[in-house]
Design brief:
Largest sheet: 6 strands, mixed
Keywords: Membrane, Transmembrane, Transmembrane helix
Organism: Aurantiacibacter sediminis
InterPro entries: DUF2254_membrane
Radius of gyration: 29 Å
Number of helices: 16
Order of helices and strands: HHHHHHHEEEHEEEHEHHEEHHHHH
Region (Disordered): 425-444
Structural class: alpha+beta
Protein name: DUF2254 domain-containing protein
Length: 444
Amino acid sequence: MNASKGPFLGRLDWLLHRIVASYWSLPLAGVFAALPIVLAILWLDREGLTQWMLENGIDPVANGDTAKDLVAVSVGINAAFITLYFSLTLLVLTVASSNLGVRLVDRWLEKRLVRISLAGLSFTLIFSLVALMAMDAEAPKEKLPLALICAVVFLQAVNVAMLTVALHDLGRTIFVDRSIDQLGQDAAEGPFAVQSAPEEEVEWARKVCSPREGYVEGNDLELLRKRLGDTGGRARICAAPGQHVLKGETLLLLERDPGDDVSDDQFLSVVPVGGFRSDGQGAVFRIRLLVEIAARALSPAVNDFYTALTSADRLGAAILEQRHNWVNHGEIAVYCENPSFELPGQDFRGLFEDPLNALRQAACQYPSVSIRMINNYARIRQIVLEDDQSHEFAEFLRRLARELRDHAISVTGFDGDRDDIEAAFADGFSDPAPNSQKEAETAS
């Protein structure tokens, strides 16, 4: 899985991604590249390459009629290959998305192997068609484009090998653990490193509002720096990637107004708003997708709690990797490289709190999943305390585990399950709260 790391930096970055990471862009390039390459090989044949091949005993066909038949067969095979691959691709994506989640399709469409395979099949089909037009069944052998015929055979061999690899990859697409593993790795990577700073009252001189309803695609902080120029002052991006905004809702606040030199449209390029959530929005999308896979796996229609356990484990790994983005209450996340850029909602809590609450609601009826997630919270908390990180973060993990325990116990009808859930929490959180009572109350 070759997903983009995201989120996209700005409107242009988002637009380029929608073009490049599509099924049609690379195959379209292959189609347009086929004609000039065929013409180049034909020119080389007429300039002496065919004669050189005959003089050196490279004679792939008996006569012109055989050459034409060979290329015609190649056209038919390539047409069958590309039809087969398109059909199997749609079938696999339909089956896999129905079991795992339709939003995984956005990631599968970005797989380089799929796009390269489609481009190769498209290129070879057009290459063979144009080569067929150049074949004259009545021409003597020295007038045949022998190099072009050899190129057709060579590309056919490459296509057979690539199709075998591509079909194997399509079959592996349905293997859910591969997708969950890649999602977990990508979810562990954040777009920016943030740090905490005191949250202060600021008189904002300019407000930039969303011109439409939709989902924020990304934040281009470098473009924001250029737009502000020498104006300086603080800037607060009020909408994090993946966040839903309404028309007229505030996207950006500026402490110092650069005036008419920079229009609202120019600032809107910093915080582009798209029509739907997508993988390009980065970790915020991938974390929620892991929760979606777990919730779908726990639905009565699927009832695959082992997939939910795997998703819970990958979420735990992502939590651990993202712990450096934690910001305590009363503070605000700011960009490490430029602390004048405030990024509320782009810290750990903004990434994980809502998805983990959604996971609790889905997992509460499955004691095995609840116990696994409580254990994960406890293991992460132990590492956090050993690293002497924020005690408020450690209490946040305790609160999540406690809420999951209480919710699971409240809906479980079997005393043994309630005892197991209670024991899991007691084993993982038997030590007293590491911070003061005041901090614990704040965290709660």
